[in-house]
Amino acid sequence: MKSFLLVAFIVGAVTAGTLPASEQQFVNQVHAHCQSNPKTFVDENLLKNLSANKDNAQVGVHMLCMSKGAGLQGQNGEINKGAVQSKVALVIRDSSKVNEIVNKCAVKTGSWESTAVSMWLCLNKNQVPYTPILN
């Protein structure tokens, strides 16, 4: 019984925090779309260390594009908590944990660009790797 619980815990820990392949492909497509527009293009090296570049204006513009494209923020910049919740639920199975993460991460933090950056950082910090695969 102890062995079963240990295996179940390990399997749960490994599967938590992994996007389904179809969602990963979607995030990659959103990123490619944002990169294809000169107004929302950003050097990917800045995204690879997002926390160190969170105040970079172009990073903010790109992350807002990503957030809108993924449906996390509306075209007006408002946070779509329902969409954030559905994305978090793709990798977190515990509904109370999902709600906790949404309440922590889906929060306006100044400009809409700043909000987008903060939300993506918060999601990643909380084991929700909703990020594109960067070159």
Describe it for me?
It is built from seven helices and no strands. The protein has 135 residues and is mainly α. The N and C termini lie far apart (44 Å). It has a single domain, classed as Pheromone/general odorant binding protein domain (Recoverin, domain 1). The model is unreliable at 1-15 (pLDDT under 50). Helix 5 (81-89) packs across helix 6. Helices cover 61% and strands 0% of the residues. This is Odorant binding protein 13.
* Rg on CA atoms, Å: 16 Å
Distance between the termini: 44 Å
Mean pLDDT over all positions:
90
Number of domains: 1
Q: Which regions have little confidence, pLDDT < 50, spanning 5+ residues?
A: 1-15
CATH superfamily: Pheromone/general odorant binding protein domain
Total count of strands: 0
User: What is the strand content?
Assistant: under 5%
The outline comes out as globular
State the helicity in percent bands: 55-70%
Structural class: mainly alpha
Which topology does CATH recognise? Recoverin, domain 1
List the secondary-structure elements in sequence, H or E: HHHHHHH
Main sheet: strands, sense, barrel: none
Top-tier CATH class? Mainly Alpha
Number of helices: 7
What is the CATH architecture annotation? Orthogonal Bundle
GO molecular function: odorant binding
Signal peptide: 1-16
Organism: Xylotrechus quadripes
Protein name: Odorant binding protein 13
